[in-house]
Amino acid sequence: xxxxxxxxxxxxxxxxxxxxxxxxxxxxxxxxxxxxxxxxxxxxxxxxxxxxxxxxxxxxxxxxxxxxxxxxxxxxxxxxxxxxxxxxxxxxxxxxxxxxxxxxxxxxxxxxxxxxxxxxxxxxxxxxxxxxxxxxxxxxxxxxxxxxxxxxxxxxxxxxxxxxxxxxxxxxxxxxxxxxxxxxxxxx
Length: 188
Fold this sequence. Notes:
Helix content: over 70%
Largest sheet: 2 strands, antiparallel
Number of strands: 2
Radius of gyration: 19 Å
Shape: globular
Distance between the termini: 37 Å
Order of helices and strands: HHHHHEEHHH
Strand order of the largest sheet: 1-2
Strand content: under 5%
């Protein structure tokens, strides 16, 4: 596949992700999993690395991940095309909605539609989180599933620590640094 075709494909696939991933960055995860499987642009391990990098860099998760996939696939032009593909549907939809939303915002059907979308988005995000947890917490080799106990125990400890009120006030940057140090020291 030549660069122009690949560029168009990146734009189109991320346009579809941007069109249907209601709920922000985490809602893009199921679509990214599908893209990885369909086009072999990245593996599930690459996806977990993308999430880590996207979460630790400034900007929205979905845009960071689109840029990352595009860059890894086609360099700088791919990063630009994937990012534009992801945000274009939002821009179009926001412009259309802004044109008439003020007139219908009090309509009970509109309110009901938004109330119905929330649980669907929550379910999509929950499925994506479960898929990522499976990759992070379990080793799937030779048809066997082996729990990665060191990572599971560390995850439980960190989750428990984050329930302590004073630790919730620590800036996320420091949690990233602590996680990186633990990963290096214990070779997770």
